[in-house]
């Protein structure tokens, strides 16, 4: 009887681990917003991106891709440096020596579309 109860318990726990989706966390422990729905390749003009140029609404361009980094502005380890090119092309700054290689994976969580050429 005890073996049956333990088997059922562990089976239940295993099922819950498979069914309940895990929230991805940023390095600071906060949930990261997923843009999977937006990855259908929406296109933005440079003029559209330029409207999102403040702390509470911050988009950047990196290599012809558009990212909404608004939710990351307050967590940015470089402080307000992320705002230097808000609403504009941040490619040069993004690939600067100050960034660890993990930012190349992190940035994809903020991708919202491509820049129209």
UniProtKB/TrEMBL annotation:
<keyword id="KW-0349">Heme</keyword>
<dbReference type="InterPro" id="IPR050668">
    <property type="entry name" value="Cytochrome_b5"/>
</dbReference>
<keyword id="KW-0479">Metal-binding</keyword>
<dbReference type="InterPro" id="IPR036400">
    <property type="entry name" value="Cyt_B5-like_heme/steroid_sf"/>
</dbReference>
<comment type="similarity">
    <text>Belongs to the cytochrome b5 family.</text>
</comment>
<dbReference type="InterPro" id="IPR018506">
    <property type="entry name" value="Cyt_B5_heme-BS"/>
</dbReference>
<dbReference type="InterPro" id="IPR001199">
    <property type="entry name" value="Cyt_B5-like_heme/steroid-bd"/>
</dbReference>
<dbReference type="Pfam" id="PF00173">
    <property type="entry name" value="Cyt-b5"/>
</dbReference>
<keyword id="KW-1133">Transmembrane helix</keyword>
<keyword id="KW-0408">Iron</keyword>
<feature type="domain" description="Cytochrome b5 heme-binding">
    <location>
        <begin position="41"/>
        <end position="116"/>
    </location>
</feature>
<keyword id="KW-0472">Membrane</keyword>
<dbReference type="GO" id="GO:0046872">
    <property type="term" value="F:metal ion binding"/>
</dbReference>
<dbReference type="GO" id="GO:0020037">
    <property type="term" value="F:heme binding"/>
</dbReference>
<feature type="transmembrane region" description="Helical">
    <location>
        <begin position="6"/>
        <end position="23"/>
    </location>
</feature>
<protein>
    <submittedName>
        <fullName>Cytochrome B5-like protein</fullName>
    </submittedName>
</protein>
<keyword id="KW-0812">Transmembrane</keyword>
């Amino acid at each position: 009887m005890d073996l049956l109860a333990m088997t059922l318990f562990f089976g239940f726990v295993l099922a819950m681990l498979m069914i309940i989706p895990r929230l991805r966390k940023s390095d600071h422990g906060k949930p990261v917003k997923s843009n999977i729905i937006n990855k259908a390749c929406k296109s933005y003009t440079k003029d559209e991106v330029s409207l999102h140029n403040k702390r509470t609404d911050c988009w950047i361009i990196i290599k012809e891709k558009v990212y909404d980094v608004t939710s990351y502005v307050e967590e940015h380890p470089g402080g307000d440096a992320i705002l230097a090119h808000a609403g504009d092309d941040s490619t040069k700054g993004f690939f600067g020596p100050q960034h660890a290689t993990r930012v190349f994976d992190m940035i994809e969580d903020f991708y919202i579309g491509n820049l129209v050429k």
